[in-house]
Amino acid sequence: MLKTLLLAIIIIAICTVLLCIKVILVKGGRFPNTHIEGNKGLRKKGIYCAKTEDRIQLQHRNLYDRLKEE
Q: Residue 10, Cα to own-chain centre: how many angstroms?
């Protein structure tokens, strides 16, 4: 049991180091932006995250609201 736990901790430590090797070794290195807004292809297609979609919908005014302002 102890050997298995120790082996699991070592494997997790190695994986963590390998995943963040760019961040550790490269000056100014950082993890890649995997968020929807960080993807140029999705931005070109007009695909946004849920928060941005909600913000756009809140800014959208229908004809009744526009006429009411005038």
A: 28
Can you tell me which residue has the tokens 């049991």? 1
Q: Over the stretch 18-59, which tens digit does the pLDDT of each residue have?
A: 888 877 787 777 777 778 877 888 888 888 888 888 888 888
- How high is the pLDDT of residue 52? 84
- What residues contact 23, with CB distance under 8 A and at least 6 apart? 29, 30, 31
Residue in 52, 69, 49, 53 with CA at minimum distance from that of residue 61: 69
Name the token pair of 24: 């550790």
Q: How far apart are CA 57 and CA 20, in angstroms?
A: 38
Residues 53 and 60 sit within 8 Å (Cβ to Cβ) = no
pTM to 2 decimals? Answer: 0.43
